[in-house]
Amino acid sequence: MDVRLAAQGLAIGYPGRRIGAGIDLELAPGGILCLLGPNGCGKTTLFRTLLGLIPAQGGEVLLGGRPLAAARRAEIARAIAYVPQAHAPPFPYRALDIVLMGRTARLPALSQPGARDREIALRALDRLGIGDLAQADYSRLSGGQRQLVLIARALAQETPLMVMDEPTASLDFGNQARVLAEIAGLAGGAGGEPLGVVLSTHDPDQAFALGAEVVLMKEGRILARGRPEAVLTGEALSTVYGVPVSVERTEGGRLVCLPALGRRPPGQAASPEVMDIA
Ligand SMILES: Nc1ncnc2c1ncn2[C@@H]1O[C@H](COP(=O)(O)OP(=O)(O)OP(=O)(O)O)[C@@H](O)[C@H]1O
């Protein structure tokens, strides 16, 4: 089955508000796309458009070569799982109930999740090291715990593609590494068939760690796309984030991005993001 997700000349935004345009990208099982860009540049808006949650303002999204706009909600949910930024629901669901929601698109109409769905949901929680939270009230979990539950929900959905909006944002150092390893494993086929994963992050080092294809965004447009070594240069990162950044190689051979605090790159205007602390 062809489950590639593609954006062609995509324009994104909200009624009366254009956020971005001219966006082309493609995600196939086995691939990892890492979306980087400053706050407010349109990453979440792009994800919501790729998922069909808001309509494209121009161009189109194709799922398996067919227009996403023509696909039914359940069909999209069987192809693409979504890990939104962690939020608290208005009702006190158990963490297990939240994960079971990932099974909805797999169930016949009007039927309740069964023993197998429960087993899959519990396995997803265990895989992320939070099996002990299954009966906990989701609304009382920490931001990072909620984020892990939402990732478990996406795993339980058993889709070939996964869209993850800042999946490591609230996680501690160890859980960030665990989730990155999980993403690499999913794309590598550790859970069975290789998945295609697109994630957004504010940490460019994650793109190096994952060896992911990078999509660098600014103001709703794609500035550069390709291998992290080619795209994530000090110059490109300095331009996009408005702070001087150098990219250096560690003794172990890994590239890391280092923002220099207190100095601006030549020609950069003063920005509230630049801290003059030197
Ligand atoms: N429902 C909405 N209606 C109108 N504008 C919106 C809506 N939601 C978001 N926006 C605007 O769209 C722009 C892009 O927001 P978006 O959340 O896509 O950015 P982002 O790159 O994901 O940001 P961050 O890195 O801070 O999460 C912002 O200016 C935001 O104010």
Which secondary structure elements does this structure contain, and how are they paired or packed?
Layout: E1 5-14, E2 17-27, E3 32-36, H1 43-50, E4 58-63, E5 66-67, H2 73-79, E6 80-83, H3 95-100, H4 115-127, H5 143-156, E7 161-164, H6 173-188, E8 196-200, H7 204-210, E9 213-218, E10 221-226, H8 228-231, H9 234-241, E11 245-249, E12 255-259
Helix pairs in contact: 4-5
Bound molecules: adenosine-5'-triphosphate.
The site of adenosine-5'-triphosphate has 11 residues, from strand 2 and helix 1.
Q: Can you describe this structure?
A:
Part of the ABC transporter complex HmuTUV involved in hemin import. Responsible for energy coupling to the transport system. This is ABC transporter ATP-binding protein. GO terms for molecular function: ATP binding; ATP hydrolysis activity. Belongs to the ABC transporter superfamily. Keywords: ATP-binding, Nucleotide-binding, Translocase, Transport. The protein folds into two domains: 5-232, Rossmann fold (3-Layer(aba) Sandwich), CATH 3.40.50.300; 233-278, no CATH class. It is 30% helix and 25% strand. The chain contains nine helices and twelve strands. The termini are far apart. α4 packs across α5. β11 (245-249) and β12 form a beta hairpin. The protein has 278 residues and is an alpha/beta fold. Residues 270-278 have low confidence and may be disordered. Bound molecules: adenosine-5'-triphosphate.
